Predict the structure.
Amino acid sequence: LSDRLDSAWKKLRGQDKISQSNIQEALREVRRALLEADVNLQVVKDFITEVEAKAQGAEVISGVRPDQQFIKIVYDELLGVMGEENVPLAEATTAPTIVLMAGLQGTGKTTATAKLALHLRKINRSCMMVATDVYRPAAIDQLKTLGKQIEVPVFDMGSDANPVEIARQGVERAKAEGIDTVIIDTAGRLQIDQDMMGELARIKETVQPHEILLVVDAMTGQEAASLTRTFHEQIGITGAILTKMDGDSRGGAALSVRRISGQPIKFIGVGEKVEALQPFYPDRMASRILGMGDVLTLVEKAQEEIDFADAEKMQEKILSAKFDFTDFLKQMRLLKNMGSLGGIMKMLPGMNKLTDDQLKQGETQLKRCEAMINSMTHKERRDPDLLASSPSRRKRVASGSGYKEPDVTKLVSDFQRMRTMMQQMTQGGGFPGMPGGSG
Ligand code: GDP
Ligand code: MG
């Protein structure tokens, strides 16, 4: 057996392996998709290297191109990194649950504080919000206004008080009032600085929060990675909220945050309104990041064919002479799915000198076969001998498919010959000829 023939047959039987060479294109595509989604460059590199290593040597499913299957592996891996399910907000065993919001200025901390409070109120958990941003004059008012709007109390001590003290007293108040959850809104800076980190660390030390949520603007892009690293190293986050997902962003920051902190994204913000908060669903985000809905559908469809393409089942069928026209039709469709029939035929001995014209003829031949098989009854498809012994059946099939009776006769005898060859081949090795040929 020549190597080329061997690989063609392996492809047919779905035993091709995923390798560097047959996924080059897909690798590039995935890399581009991730970068376009604003996943951090280093995160992309590491992720791709890992997935590639995992995919190497995986069996290719029949009828699925290795590159498509690779994309499916990428998707599954992406899902693995993001976590299989939504992780809900922590809940302390003894109330109140203390949530600390962290993040840069303008990312949406204050808005997310109110969104979260409304979300909790809707599931009957009582809330209090604490205003510790004493640096921007309007910040306390902003939270108070939001509090009024969603009917959630806001604790504040004006803008002269110490943020750590405000947080401490806020939690005390919540305890005294039997509140379920207290959410502490904090001040951010435009850039990470040690004052902000120091203050956050002291608030954390003082109130011992159950949840520290990093609020990340989805538009942050590449910097989401270093931002997450700094906050996680210095404060230790337990989760994140990805805001402004209603914009153009494909949400690559989610992957960066998750990869770097190992902590789950818990919610996404999808608008300026207080209602615009959604639980984070890893599968939806994975699809959005890849932006390859079509490819995924394709791969999933193709997987349905696995059962049929399963090499062992196939062999069994051939050996027991149960391989019939229905199987043949499926096999032809698999061939078509695999892309270029010409490419495969060129790998066959004696066929590598085929001209494009001759290849086109081959494709036409397949179409003829398909038309004739489509005109057969199910009984005839299962039992080709019926056709071999009945001229009237052959005539009916011929007129139904728009061909002549001799064409049907030839298809049937070629098929029977092929089946015999296949039986010999599965025992001895070789490649079946194609029935319905003109020669
Ligand atoms: P903070 O400085 O971190 O407290 O940020 P703010 O909560 O004050 O929000 C900053 C700006 O972002 C405001 O104009 C918000 O309306 C807006 N914003 C917050 N979250 C979202 C979101 O999910 N989508 C959109 N489109 N805008 C948001
Ligand atoms: Mg704010």
Remarks:
- Residues 338-344, 346-351, 429-434 have pLDDT under 50 and may be disordered.
- Strands lie at 97-102, 127-131, 154-155, 181-185, 211-217, 239-243, 265-269, 277-279.
- The domain at 310-428 is CATH 1.10.260.30 (434 Repressor (Amino-terminal Domain)).
- The first strand starts at residue 97 and ends at 102.
